[in-house]
Specification:
The protein is an all-alpha fold and 172 residues long. It is built from seven helices and no strands. It has helices at 2-38, 40-68, 71-78, 85-102, 112-135, 142-151, 155-171. 19% of the residues are buried. The mean pLDDT is 86.
Length: 172
């Protein structure tokens, strides 16, 4: 007898859950129909068609920025033998900042997490460049400085690339 009571209670609970699910499904369909009828649905779809390519482009541009300002690539692009210490210092910092400023508006299309990672990577690069130049003795050859910069790890840049890729995957 107790088993029948338990089965009846379970059946009633199951029926209640099915009924609640059907009501929720019906409400969801009504809401979708309401959105479509009001034109808001179409506006959202159109907005996504416009914004999604801009978001993808922002992630691409920040990834390109991070790849271009990694110290080995940056030094390879800027350093020429016989260059003066001050000139190299200025050009490295100028390149990092100009590339950053060129992509500044892209922050509108990425997550705050990604933006902060890119910003921190830029700051780390500027600090590494300045610290390396401060440690160079005046009589040392600039080529030694260039080699020192190329050998430096860039953990914030690497971390920013990881954050960027992870956030991009979530976007899709």
């Amino acid at each position: 007898m107790n088993n029948w009571i338990i089965i009846a209670i379970m059946a009633a609970g199951l029926l209640l859950m099915v009924a609640a699910l059907m009501v929720l499904l019906r409400l969801s369909r009504m809401k979708d129909a309401e959105l479509r009828n009001s034109g808001k649905y179409e506006l959202k779809v159109q907005a996504l068609k416009i914004i999604m390519p801009l978001k993808v482009q922002a992630y691409e541009r920040f990834l390109l920025y991070l790849e271009r300002v990694q110290l080995p690539q940056l030094v390879k692009r800027i350093y020429t033998p016989g260059m003066e210490k001050g000139t190299l210092h200025l050009l490295l910092l100028q390149n990092v900042r100009e590339e950053f400023e060129h992509n500044l508006a892209q922050q509108l299309y990425v997550s705050n997490n990604t933006w902060n990672a890119v910003l921190n990577a830029k700051e780390e690069l500027v600090n590494q460049i300045n610290t390396t130049f401060e440690q160079l003795k005046d009589e040392e050859d600039v080529s030694i400085l260039a080699q020192s910069l190329v050998a430096l790890p860039n953990p914030m840049v690497e971390q920013a690339i990881v954050v960027l890729k992870r956030d991009f995957e979530r976007l899709l």
